[in-house]
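Re: the pair you flagged

First of the two:
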Amino acid sequence: MTSTADPASTADIAFICAMPMELEPLIQKLELTETSIGGAPAHVGTLGDWTVVGIVTGMGTELASAGMTRLLDAVQVDRVVVVGITGAVENETPIGTLILPELVVNGATGSEYRPAPLGEGAPAGTMWTTDTLITDPDEIAALRARGVVSLDMETAAIAALCERRGIPWSVFRVISDRASDGSIDEEVFGLSNMDGSPNIEAIERFFAEHPERVEAMAKLAEGAMLATEAAADAAIGACAFS
């Protein structure tokens, strides 16, 4: 069912995702209803006694900031929960590992943000938010040396807006790939549009030019699906526990 009207002006929890594939498990598990908030697509529903809203911002700090601003200008939110995938900075962390960062850093500015505890998990490590794809071994090694455990493209921007508005925020991201194993490069990164949707033309061209990478890409897609499901389950579980 789809509603074209804006929902109520308050929500206990806002689930924030960068890509549609990250929000989809939440939609299915919580039976969220599609609607519109501030003129943009959103999904609303409940989690126990909580009212919830879920949105997709698009990829990168600029789109994350714009999407969050649009939501927070339209809806009074009590807590923000960032849900989705993240990339490991070393090859030992298994795909599907939940990352609950103790610290989130904006790689462009150095600004640091600390998530509010939610659920039973113990926060650990630093999540590094960057708008650029990092694959250089020396740069990755430097990040590991300062306690970075994973990379993402939105969390620091979301955190900055939440802290500016006095809204507690938490992060539930799950490892879907590794920055140092060669599975992600600029060409693979370009297979998604910045709104998180698949770039069909780029995908068709990629497989025409690299048929030998079909198996590796299937494995990457499998890891992403596993990670989105695990992230949704962890976020729902933590909210229900609280």
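Second of the two:
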Amino acid sequence: MSNKDSSQQIVIRKSNELIEARYRLTLEEQRLVFLLSSVIRTDDEDFKDYEIRVSDFVQMFGLEKRKAIYKAVEEAARELSGKKIDLSRDGRKIFASWLSYVEYVEGSGVVKLRFDKSLKPYLLQLKDCLHGFTQYNLATVINFKSTYSIRLYELLKMEVWKAEKSRRTQFEKTFEIEEYRQILGVDKKSYPIFADLKKRVIEPTVLEISKQTDLNVVETKYIKTGRKITGIMFLVKIRQTDEIQTLQL
């Protein structure tokens, strides 16, 4: 069974508050979060110590040819334990950690991880979430090469249920540029000039999502205030089942 086939069975579920949170992860760290999220049961009431086998990580994401992958996974787990999430909203300042525990025994090929308890409202018992939750198959994003693509896909996927409830096959999603930077973790030092942000982050991300997923970003509009671009609007078409199947051939 290919990594694509096996990942079709894995559903990622996150609260919309977590999707809209402000944080920045590397691709390896994002993949670890995926794999860790995939072993959570829908009826779990608390986090457990979950064992992630590096061999499963390699097979899942098709990294058989990647050099020093065991070291990369160990480093990603260590770095993830120190990464913070800004969940602030509605006048409340909320900051959380991704992990509360990491254990890696040299040569074992196994990483033991535990989500921090502060993330329980955002990953467990999601039917009770005040702001709802979003789910999708891991296979949809498994071949993404950019962590920005993962973030934008989740942000757009949040809007699908609203469109479908209104029997619409497309929708618009608008961000202020500064808001967009903050959510994706793109600080001004990385791409101070908007043209670079557009070329390095926005355009590749839109292309990756449109080529590989159930969402087709048919138009990207840039909103100006005077001469300055201050906003961005994505016009998104929801692909139907037959269109998605064609993509997977």
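DSSP finds eleven helices and ten strands in the chain.

-B.
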